[in-house]
């Protein structure tokens, strides 16, 4: 974003540099105070709250320049100023380094993930943690895994007789856990399930689908008992479907939706925003278009290209577990969010998420 004071810094020498740096300091102070107080910021409060080293008159002149640049605006007569989307963008672009989390914060994240079991649990923990850290609505996109093999299979008989049901607990190599209730056409004993479970685990341990199918047919041909063979075939079909679903699934998990209403920034648009987020189509489309070159991506207001998100800011980072494509984790909140803190938290959680899923 080229601004008048950027041009001055390039052509005007030391005095211009100082003036440009001072105005950037004023903009940062306005953003900081507005995020904290949610009230328009005046020159008097800037003098009282910040050590800017200049008079109130100089700050008023700087604020006039910022307003001319379109970086701040006056929401109503006799009020202070608030940042515009353009102002937030300039502020974010001037954040030179993302502050790392403290040692206690890093320890808390590690402990939060330690007892996670399976992909679903990891995703749920991720959004709960990020919502707590940022006080925003947290979102995480499930990774689209390549076809994966079976890590563990457990078959549990439920009931007996001709309407026998079996609970199949399936854990894939990616960590996804599925529990599927399967109706079998023939009664099955615990011994039968044991004789089926071991070879099926071996068959589906292979990630290559044609190899799975070939191994399955080869094993089924050795099963002389027709009832057992039919039961095994149905169980194999359900296991294959679960592994395939884990590879193609694209969805988003969210937490902290109540933070949208608590912010007070969406009084007139809250219903439409919540509905859009719950439907997930807008977010999935937005994430699908994102290709971050930076560790953290920030989309402010109308930059999203979606009317329903015009009053929001989205801070996100990508993560890429082994065997999967790029996916995203981030937070959604009002444009007046605490960008430095949100960016730091999102980047850290994305890194921990990649680490956990690659273990």
Automatic annotation (TrEMBL):
<feature type="domain" description="Heat-inducible transcription repressor HrcA C-terminal">
    <location>
        <begin position="120"/>
        <end position="342"/>
    </location>
</feature>
<dbReference type="InterPro" id="IPR021153">
    <property type="entry name" value="HrcA_C"/>
</dbReference>
<dbReference type="GO" id="GO:0003700">
    <property type="term" value="F:DNA-binding transcription factor activity"/>
</dbReference>
<keyword id="KW-0346">Stress response</keyword>
<dbReference type="InterPro" id="IPR002571">
    <property type="entry name" value="HrcA"/>
</dbReference>
<dbReference type="InterPro" id="IPR001034">
    <property type="entry name" value="DeoR_HTH"/>
</dbReference>
<dbReference type="InterPro" id="IPR036388">
    <property type="entry name" value="WH-like_DNA-bd_sf"/>
</dbReference>
<dbReference type="InterPro" id="IPR029016">
    <property type="entry name" value="GAF-like_dom_sf"/>
</dbReference>
<keyword id="KW-0805">Transcription regulation</keyword>
<keyword id="KW-0678">Repressor</keyword>
<feature type="domain" description="HTH deoR-type">
    <location>
        <begin position="34"/>
        <end position="79"/>
    </location>
</feature>
<comment type="similarity">
    <text>Belongs to the HrcA family.</text>
</comment>
<comment type="function">
    <text>Negative regulator of class I heat shock genes (grpE-dnaK-dnaJ and groELS operons). Prevents heat-shock induction of these operons.</text>
</comment>
<dbReference type="GO" id="GO:0045892">
    <property type="term" value="P:negative regulation of DNA-templated transcription"/>
</dbReference>
<dbReference type="GO" id="GO:0003677">
    <property type="term" value="F:DNA binding"/>
</dbReference>
<dbReference type="InterPro" id="IPR036390">
    <property type="entry name" value="WH_DNA-bd_sf"/>
</dbReference>
<dbReference type="InterPro" id="IPR023120">
    <property type="entry name" value="WHTH_transcript_rep_HrcA_IDD"/>
</dbReference>
<dbReference type="Pfam" id="PF01628">
    <property type="entry name" value="HrcA"/>
</dbReference>
<protein>
    <recommendedName>
        <fullName>Heat-inducible transcription repressor HrcA</fullName>
    </recommendedName>
</protein>
<keyword id="KW-0804">Transcription</keyword>
<dbReference type="Pfam" id="PF08220">
    <property type="entry name" value="HTH_DeoR"/>
</dbReference>
